[in-house]
Give the backbone structure.
Amino acid sequence: MALTPRDNPPASSVRALVPAREALRADPQFDTYLTRQIPVLVALSLVPGLGYILLGALHGAFTAAAAWYSVMLAASLWGLQLYWRYHRSPLSPEQRLRWRLHLTLFLYLYLALWTAIFLIFVRLDSHNLHYIAIFTQIGATTVVAALLYPAPWVFRPLIPAMMAPLAGYFLLIGDWYSYVLAAFSATLALVLFYAANSSFGLLRNSFHQASHDALTGLNNRAAFIEHLEQSLEVLQHHGQHSYLLLIDLDHFKTVNDLLGHDIGDELLKSVTRDFANALPPGHHLARLGGDEFVIVAPGKEDRQTCERAARRLAHSLLQVVKTPSIIRNHHLHVSASIGIRLIEPAQPVDSHQLVREADIAMYEVKDRGRDGVVVFSDELSRAVERHLQIERCLHFALHNREIEVLFQPQVDTTGRIRSAETLIRWHSAELGAVSPAEFIPIAEQTGYISELGDAVIARAFQALRDWDRAGFPLEQLAINISPRQLVHLNFVHRMQDLITRYLGREHAHRITLEITEHVVAEDTDRVIHIMQALRQMGLRFSMDDFGTGFSSLSYLKRLPFDELKIDRSFVRQVDHDTDDQAMVRTICDIARQFGLAVVAEGVETEAQYRWLTTHGDLLFQGFLFARPMDANAFFDHSRRAPALKPDTNQAAPAAG
């Protein structure tokens, strides 16, 4: 579709953002209240109606009263049938419209019958029954104003229609007091009309404020959940499929932070209007909060049709969002991430679960780079369940002593152990062995990485101190530090405290912090400031997995690294793959130009080792030399490790 800039929406009322068809959906919210009035009206009619039959029998109007009561009884049965129909099974939007039409006809008929009994008894003035008729009509009109005020299409025509016969009766008397009574009748009609209309306006405004978002005029989360629950009942009853779209604008926070919340609010209004105009009939749009929107579709006959429609609509909305916006001379370009949750009648779920699962699919889009669509699936559900299990168990891992700190030697070309890398392993009592590649990102997301990292650093420092006391002063000990951990507010102070507590500042130069290239995705200036502060303490830095991420010579120039680690992906086939060989040569050349040490990790075969030894003064790490081991095993291994050749018995096909 052509990308034409969206103009800034003109200042208008909140409701102008919502299409007219959405306004029709406000009335159904009062249907439950109106339905509850049916038994009340029946009781207020049938019980006093027996008195009219008795009075009619006493004063020569039995036939008319009995006929009236028979019709009233039939109308009451019709009303109770409408009541039962409403509560017996959920109504589709079309069925609800038909039901409301029948309810309106019932109310008109029912109250017309009260006017009829007024006309019957007002003629019996010789027996003073006209007084009963007068007060009956006033009472019936008051009931309309008091009970039916949420239905303006009922009380607005009925109040004047029911008071008009009363005023006409007074006028026909032709005496001065009758004119006064006619004026009083008209005044009472106006008062009742005003009271009912004011009550309806107050109710409508209160309901609108409670159920609608103040900025966009869309339903808010609470109102949407209520609408979704009603829709689910209808879908289940009719065996239909549907879908839920959860839309989150990408980088919307940047708009608020850079341009202000007023520009962000205008953008949300513009996007709301564009979404509403792009939706097919029958779709319900709501704002969950912030920059999150949700859409529920009407029922479809089969799953395939439903999924195709969901994907088609989602991709069309992506194009709508990406249309540039011009707001107060700012050209704004945003995208969206959309999660789809298909709704199937064979899988009954509650509304909150549906929104949560659509949210999971939406965040999967975020993880994949944003600006896309993902359909929630069982596989994604299992992955999320696994994520939640890991997150839950991880918080008890340190307390339950499930975290193990291991050390893998790094040797030079003579086979002498020069340093070691600190590795972390987790064997959960509930989940079994969990890979660091799986739980470290979760620890970063939850903020648990700081507590976990401090515990690992403390154990590594203790091990280095214990080896010193046992007569094995290791030259260097490398510790992996995640980017999130490095930029934590108190990381420098915590490192200083841990060094003072376990090592002493004179030994800080023996610690190398391994940082992946992804650290450059953070605030580079802040990262440089933190690294410089740590270097002043004597710490060294190694760039881990060099060549696999954001490699740039400018980063090597600006960031104070002392060492590069060749990623295992380049070492795996280095003995015969010319591309890997070229990459390793390039890394070694870069290291020499910048005066950096080089460590090759993942060395598993003699052929890899022999090729690498001919391309510089490297350190080597991998299963060819030793597997990761605990502190005691590492000490024992180091005492018998002056072997000048690698331990080929340690070789293994898996990565170390």
